[in-house]
Amino acid sequence: MLRNVLYLAMGAVLLSGCFVSVHREECLTEGKESRGLRHVVMFKFKDGTSSQQIREIEDAFRALPGKIDAICDFEWGTDVSVENRQQGFTHCFLVTFRSEADRAAYLPNPNHKEFGKILGPHLDKVLVLDYWATK
Amino acid sequence: MLRNVLYLAMGAVLLSGCFVSVHREECLTEGKESRGLRHVVMFKFKDGTSSQQIREIEDAFRALPGKIDAICDFEWGTDVSVENRQQGFTHCFLVTFRSEADRAAYLPNPNHKEFGKILGPHLDKVLVLDYWATK
User: Fold this and answer.
1) Axis crossing angle, helix B2-24 with helix A2-24, rounded to the nearest 10
2) What is the pTM for the complete model shown?
């Protein structure tokens, strides 16, 4: 009896690990040796853009994964590099899609367009580079 | 007896899931709400760089995670964007560190410096932006 309980407890602990694993692999496209289609977006804001305006832009971008199903993973951050090769860019957003079809759904999505309207007036430079992520 | 074997089999299956999970989370810094310190590196090669020379550079970068312990995750790919905002960059490498200390160990690492010698003669433009990855 005690042994069965131990086995079950072990199973429960391992099960939680398994769920985490499944969650983190959701952008893997079936049959494709890739972690997904990465969409790297960098911004440099115009001089004079206030910290509150920047915060509103950050929040608006961060809200997109909750509004657009085609986004299967999302992360972002502000530049903390030490090599002075960031070309003036201060923000990086990493959006991940499962497929080119999902990217094609994202780009003209009304919520994405709406974000563009919030961003546009403050944008000095933008860089967008997409790649299929492989090791 | 049969029940014990079933419990063990279940444990083994779950264990494999757990290993995948641990592997994919290894860049999470304890106590930090981040997936790690991302180091985004983009290249544009000089006109006239041959496809073989580009392949040698790709292979040399891809070999670094096997040589430098400070790299806890690595992925890369070539530009497939459709918005023409890649500013001429054709390659993106995403190197992840657990800490600023690991980045500080990576930058002057002899293997990294050796890679720089292979890359340097063919490099037109480079962009490096680091960020602590958050949702």
Assistant:
1) 30
2) 0.82
